[in-house]
Task: structure prediction
Amino acid sequence: MIMNKNISTFIGCENEYEDSKIVVFGAPFDSTTSFKPGTRFASRVMRSESFGIETYSPYQDKDLEDISVFDGGDLELCFGNTAKALDQIEEFTDEIINDGKTPCMIGGEHLVTLGAVKAVIKKYPDLHIVHFDAHADLREDYLDEKLSHATVMKRVWDLVGDDKIYQFGIRSGERVEFSWAKEHVYMNKYNFDGLAEAIKKLDGKPVYFSIDLDVLDPSVFPGTGTPEAGGVSFKELLESALAVSKLNVVGFDIVELSPIYDQSGASTATACKILRELLLANY
Result:
């Protein structure tokens, strides 16, 4: 595939593919959303709204103008076939990884993470996952369907195995998910306590970093399909995301923005700012 610049890009990501270390792409898929759909519009809206923020980060004293990031646009995913859509994400991520670049995916519902992880783990078989979310996403199935945004971390566990998934901010799920987690993953409920210890354990290991933006409290981030009260603040998320980004992050994503549920645009602006900081921190 020939990678050409997208006509509409995220701010500061207008560089050539060959010159870029990070490749941004959208996975506009929400076919398994269990409550309110709309995440398929996130990447498109984030691109247009990103020009409401600056390329410069005062948090890191870095600027997107000083790095090379390529925006590959949105994938044309098959909405009628979930497995095929995941295959398409995997194929595109494969190309990025094989070219020695870091994939940055904008979801979409959280299931899209599975497609990217399937590609990344081929190159990094000792892959570990850092997962920020309100929801455990550890169900074996949802309404008898194994491929769902409610099952994504269980499907990722199928690939990576025990003690490879580190979850933070979790405050929603079935009882069986929380019981299962005690034996198979590291789960910190409600907040980011224990993150520093996890980062020490993960030092030097390849990490895939997935942020479900509903980890934020809905008073900060109402623009999501499954809002859960009791979340973290923007400052807490930013500080924790920057801490994780000091690890060997070989791929990352942000998911579950549904811009139509926040007409003020504040949720989209928040997502844009988090993405800017991730791009700068992982370059």
